[in-house]
UniProtKB/TrEMBL annotation:
Sequence ranges of Basic and acidic residues compositional bias: 119-137
Annotated stretches, region: Disordered: 104-137
UniProt name for this protein: Acetyltransferase
Residues making up the signal peptide according to the UniProt record: 1-26
Sorted UniProt keywords: Signal, Transferase
Organism: Cryobacterium lyxosi
Superkingdom in the source lineage: Bacteria
GO molecular function: transferase activity
Amino acid sequence: MRRTLVASGAASALLLTGLVSLSATAAEPEGCHPTKENRPVCQAGSPAETATFLDATAKVKEPEHISLAEHVYVGPFAELVADDDAPISIGDESNVQDNVLILGARDGDSDSDSDSDDDGGRETVRGEGHAEPGVEIGDRVILAHGVSVIGPAQIGVEGNDIPADPAGDQEVFLSFSSQVDGAVLERNTGVGALGRVGPGVRLRSGFIVLPGKNVTTQTEADDPALGKVRLINEADVAFNEAVIEVNTAFAREYTRLYRDNPSNVRGVNFDPGHTEFNHDRDLPSFAGQEKRVPGFRNRLIGDLNLIDTFSRFSSVSGARISLRADEGEPFGVGSVDRMGDDVIFHALEEADLVAGDRVQYGDKVVVHGGGRVVVAGEPEEPTVVGDDVVLEDESIVFRSTIGNGSVIGQRSVVVGSDLAPGTEVPPRTVIINGVKFGDVEW
């Protein structure tokens, strides 16, 4: 397998922050199958107002066993891996963001025997009857950048005790680099950044896994006093609804961008514009020169301003990189010392992002902009990565300022914080609002 399987209230907190019963034979999903003729728009002839859009770089294995409903956005370098025993279905208005990995089944699981554990006699999701694996993702589910989902799993399903609310407020949010592995997440739940829900666990409606926590038993999932989950709140719900609105707009407007010119949705190119949060179509610039390079191996989109020339950036950057200034903008990026594989830049609407000179970006780094109110009544502050900063593999920066010469350790996350120059954050550490929240447990 190519990539490692990895996997706050305020909105920042959510971003940081079951026993499934499957039939004996996996049902074939209904809906649009993202076969060649249905890429990047699924169905090919759908009106933009209802279309699903898959970025040209997204990888799909056995699309006949994958079902996508309407208004779904699938971002750059996402991977959906299904087979006839492990189908994948994704419901209306859900989104699969950059570098997300969905596996219908872990290798070899489709023939696994039934298992059980000692937590109250629970059987694991692979349980009795050689249950066939698969991944079912319901309506209005958000799979943020770098998430992984490993089947058999269900996300956004109706709870055993709490029926679905027809009025809404039932989204599921999986934050940056979180993981759902063989688990069930009911509607109105969430998992914080670098959080995880493990096999056999059911996350019940109204609960969110805290950032970095690894929930492996039903007791941990049900009891906030154990320090791994908290209750969802109104800020979480409002944030989720805004994310859904943005990504359904992406499905519509990237479809229109593609139909204007199929090469518009490849390589270095335009953002789609024509949304309430991003009105204009912009091109990235290199050393002050706007450039459009549809054949480039990475996705650089929108009002992204790099101080490096295109040639130099290409020489110091890896593969499967997604720098997307299609929501928040502009992005100002200084000279890149090194940029590893699977790096992601993005920003919330009305937020920008600034990165300094000589920054080293490890593999699977996420840098995400989002407005921060530092002084009441003053404009929001951008996310800033200073000069000579080292962001080690799988580190995450969100709504923060990282001082010059700082080092953010491997698989660490920094949210809502102003770090002084020269700060060293140890590996696998969660920093929220400038203080250590905990460790990444897995």
